[in-house]
């Protein structure tokens, strides 16, 4: 019998709670749902008003993994949706606005990915992002070195940046910006990625070409494009362990000395929230939005 749970007045069928979805630690779907319920206060503000792309892994990372952008069949009518522009024509996507919607989506077993704009103003970026992706044998240690350079360079333009792990191998840098057309945001990010490569040619590459990336950090500026999305803060990732895209302090970035230094799993997040609060809360403050040069 499928258990029915009431969340803020909404009835939800939560299924297969004993299924293992992160096999390395035996982390179950029930534990995944508990993680999202207890992290919701920090997570929800980062999802609000942003159309949602789901990277689903219902049978774990070794099963079928697939992106869902359109509203999934069977979505309850109380889950918010919005029509958004796409190159192939308008599409309707889910917008996670509250705890019941979050728990419904988490029951699909998914990573949460969002664009750098809100549904009220498609193609007007209010966030700047850099995805620092290490090419083996480079690791997150090298990503941290690049992140510190980018932080200083962005500060020179009046842009305050914040960091989180990707939940995979790398690091994400984020900043709040005044509404800016996505092409202009993308161009600015590309110029900084090129500047980083010029300053650190042995360490940084700004082009996606895989043959250029071994031993270097790819500064992915392209996720600022309107059609692109980035893993949301606090999302679990479709990996063998329940790794999380976790906000980190700049002190942690500066002190990163080994690839394991910035690995955070679901059980780590509640203590971090208790100790630090939401380290990315400043991204939600419009008064901190920077105007790009």
UniProtKB/TrEMBL annotation:
Its EC number is 6.5.1.1. It is an enzyme of class 6 (ligase). The keyword Ligase applies. It comes from the Bacteria. Residues 28-279 form the DNA ligase D polymerase domain. GO terms for molecular function: DNA ligase (ATP) activity. InterPro entries: LigD_pol_dom (IPR014145), MtLigD_Pol-like (IPR033649), NHEJ_LigD (IPR052171). PANTHER family: BIFUNCTIONAL NON-HOMOLOGOUS END JOINING PROTEIN LIGD. NCBIfam families: ligD_pol (TIGR02778). This is Non-homologous end-joining DNA ligase.
């Amino acid at each position: 019998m499928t258990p029915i749970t009431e969340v803020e007045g909404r009835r939800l069928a939560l299924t297969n709670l004993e299924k293992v979805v992160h096999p390395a630690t035996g982390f179950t779907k029930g534990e995944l749902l508990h993680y999202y319920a207890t992290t919701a206060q920090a997570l929800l503000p980062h999802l609000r008003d942003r159309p949602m792309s789901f990277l689903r892994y219902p049978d774990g990372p070794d099963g079928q993994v697939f992106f869902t952008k359109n509203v999934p069949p069977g979505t309850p009518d109380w889950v918010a949706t919005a029509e958004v522009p796409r190159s192939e024509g308008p599409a309707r996507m889910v917008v996670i606005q509250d705890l019941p919607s979050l728990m419904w989506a988490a029951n699909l077993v998914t990573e949460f990915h969002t664009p750098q704009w809100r549904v009220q103003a498609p193609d007007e970026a209010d966030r700047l992002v850099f995805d620092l992706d290490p090419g083996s044998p480079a690791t997150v240690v090298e990503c941290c070195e690049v992140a510190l350079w980018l932080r200083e360079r962005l500060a020179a333009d009046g842009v305050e940046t914040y960091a989180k792990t990707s939940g995979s191998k790398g690091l994400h840098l984020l900043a709040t910006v005044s509404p800016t057309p996505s092409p202009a945001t993308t161009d600015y990010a590309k110029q900084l990625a090129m500047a980083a490569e010029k300053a650190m040619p042995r360490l940084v590459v700004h082009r996606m070409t895989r043959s250029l990336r071994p031993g270097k950090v790819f500064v992915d500026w392209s996720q600022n494009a309107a059609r692109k999305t980035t893993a949301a803060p606090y999302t679990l990732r479709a990996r063998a362990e329940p790794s999380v895209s976790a906000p980190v302090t700049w002190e942690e970035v500066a002190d990163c000395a080994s690839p394991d230094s910035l690995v955070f799993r679901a059980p780590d997040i509640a203590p971090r929230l208790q100790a630090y609060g939401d380290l990315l809360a400043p991204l939600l403050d419009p008064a901190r939005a920077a105007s790009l040069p």
